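Assess this today:

___
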Amino acid sequence: MSEESQPEPQKRTTTESTPAPSPLVHTDEAAAAIIPNGISLSKQKLSAKEDNGSQNDGRQTLDPIEDPNQKIEDYDWADVEHRYHDKMQECAKDEAALFDEFNDTIKLFESWTAAMTVHENDRSYKRLKTRMTYVERDEERLEKKRQHYSKVVSAFESALALLRSP
């Protein structure tokens, strides 16, 4: 077999694209987004190396976990730190946007309550005026009855006075 037809082993790139977690994700999910595939990545490398090792010259390369003499591949912790800070900045921006939206909603609610207060004050004033009108009408009706009873009593008194006089 020629070297061109052999599949290349999987190589780790630092520009792997991972889906951005939502701002309110569990810590383990956020860590999984920062360090994608965790240990399973090295297992994928091992299976790819085993396939290539058996095809190359009959030698089989072992995973550093299985062969203590083999050097463990360095991990790019600076990249993890960089991605962590990027994710945290995204979360901070999302959080700031949520706070801005919340503040806008609060302002709207304050406007609504202020309008409701003015409206309710107008309604309560109209109710007061209506009650005052009913009371004034009742007072006028009672005053007319009082005057009527006064006139009736005066009429009876004058009729009695006429009956008493010879």
Observations:
- Confidence is low (pLDDT under 50) at residues 6-26, 37-50, 52-56.
